[in-house]
Amino acid sequence: MRIGIFGGTFDPVHNAHLFIAESARIIEGLERVLFVPTSGHHYRTPPLASVEERCTMVRAAIASNPRFSFDDTDVRADASGYTADLLPKLHARYPSHDFTFIIGADSLVNSQWIRFDEVLESLEHFAIAPREGVKPEAVQRAIAAIPSHLRGRVRTLNIPELPESGTLLRSLLVQQRSIRYLVPDAVWAYIETRALYGYAAAQIV
């Protein structure tokens, strides 16, 4: 079975995440896409929502798509937070599966990847989704830096750039502005109910 691995902090998960995952599933011919939240402890800016809150939002966001699944491997106590350590665990959990790792161009260009060669060697494909604000030239430079024998595993997804980002949504929420229709309804209800990201619904008239 060919499955996609879509990792990230999902802080919060939003409609652009779902669009990227569904587009990658179709373009790459994947039978399923696993959403794999990370604890985020290696990120320069740690997630604001807790692991439990982010996992709850991801589960709610993907519930309506039978081709989407949730995996908690990268938030377990023994998780290092590094993709190079995550992939062998996923191969053990899903033997005889071929993996396509799905990532936004911003994560490729702006993050420092540890043991990137090991990551690529564990994959059938590495699929990059365009993101607003990331120039194609920057993506091409990152791809050019990959060893030539692994470069053929890298794909760029021909999909529109979408403006949604976790940073944008958190900024709107702290300004007490609604992000309804930028996230799935169930995620919006959860954020409102728990007053996540500084959003205080009771203050809105």
Secondary structure layout plus pairing:
Layout: E1 2-8, H1 15-27, E2 32-37, H2 51-62, E3 68-70, H3 83-93, E4 98-104, H4 105-110, H5 116-121, E5 125-129, H6 136-144, H7 148-151, E6 154-156, H8 166-174, H9 185-194
Parallel strand pairs: 1-2, 1-4, 2-3, 4-5, 5-6
* String of helices and strands: EHEHEHEHHEHHEHH
How is the main sheet built? 6 strands, parallel
Percent helix range: 25-40%
Strand order within the widest beta sheet: 3-2-1-4-5-6
**CATH class division:** Alpha Beta
Radius of gyration: 17 Å
Could you give me the name of the CATH homologous superfamily?
HUPs
The general outline is globular
Structural class by helix and strand composition: alpha/beta
Kindly identify the CATH topology: Rossmann fold
Q: Number of helix segments? A: 9
Structure notes:
The protein is an alpha/beta fold and 205 residues long. It has a single domain (2-163), classed as HUPs (Rossmann fold), CATH 3.40.50. 39% of the residues lie in helices and 15% in strands. The protein has nine helices and six strands, in the order βαβαβαβααβααβαα. Strands 3-2-1-4-5-6 form a six-stranded parallel beta sheet. α2 links the parallel β2 (32-37) and β3 (68-70). α2 packs antiparallel against α9 (185-194). The protein is globular. The termini are far apart. The mean pLDDT is 93.
